[in-house]
Design goal:
It is built from 10 helices and no strands. By secondary structure, the chain is mainly α.
Length: 258
Amino acid sequence: MTIFLGLIIPFAGTTLGSAMVFLMKDKINNLLERLLLGFASGVMVAASVWSLLIPSIDMAKEQGVIAWVPATIGFILGILFLLVLDNIIPHLHLKSKEPEGLKSKLGKSAMMVLAVTLHNIPEGMAVGVALAGALSNNSTITIAGAIALSVGIAIQNFPEGAIISMPLKEEGNSKSKSFLYGTLSGIVEPIGGLITILLTSLVVPILPYLLSFAAGAMIYVVVEELIPESQIGKHSNKGTIGFAIGFVIMMILDVALG
């Protein structure tokens, strides 16, 4: 039951955020959007450090490996992995008119959903790897710590769900369809997490690398997309404030529960 909750909580965050399209009469306020994007960035950076990189280093020490080697290799590979996906998957970012990735005949709405789905891939990996580490009875990762990461990801998924469903409505989609698309963008998280857990017996020896790999992938999303989008236009300090709040909340969750 605990494992199921760990997998489903982040997806629930995306779903609840997407449901905001039924409550908001107009488009999301620009200042609020920046605040939420900054908040999501702060959560992801703190989660990358406390829930992924530090456990990776500690686990490497327990295995008798040079502590920084798995963290460095995994982190770089995670960055490269998202870089490749970013250049292959056709997607369209918020505030952008030019799609990225391979040329495609997909509609604007579909490519906006793919952009958020791309964000969610490393988050699903992170939760799955943390749960796999807890299941392996490794002393550096506890079930409570894995659940703390899951809750933190869910908290930042809430604004992400709203940020994708509202623009979809602005593009002419119905509220129901916008909600559905926003929800579907998060389905990769429990799927990716479940696959990782099913392969637990195989991934245990390389868990330090996988933890830092997930961290690198998440940091790529933050630096490449979330922070730049939170800083567009005037009052960019709202994004910075959101980042600080998200970072502190995730740090407290991880230290208190981990």
